[in-house]
Amino acid sequence: MSEVLNAVASRFESGATLTHESAKAAFEAGLQRIAAGATGVDCAPLAQFDSSALAVLFAWERAAQARGMAFEIVNLPAGLASLAQAYGVDTLLCRPELAL
């Protein structure tokens, strides 16, 4: 049970907006959290986004992988998942709900 609690505690929230205008700041903030040991992001608060959100999510995944850590993306909004599918990159997102 403590492993589940620790996994949730090591996730950070995406914030409500992740667009071209906010991408650089969000990216930097996420990198700081990953450097501090975060192993995932909860996208539940994400309400406004564009394709920049996908770029940031992929960059966070790469940063975690470079540190030898798995990175989970949870609660991805349906609209962002659809955008990823339209671009053909949906299978690249590490999302536990898609794992078989």
TrEMBL record:
One of the Pfam families matching this protein, by short name: STAS_2
Start and end residues of each MlaB-like STAS domain: 17-90
Gene3D superfamilies: STAS domain
Cross-referenced InterPro entries: MlaB-like_STAS, STAS_dom_sf
Listed name of the protein: Anti-anti-sigma factor
Species annotation: Paraburkholderia phytofirmans OLGA172
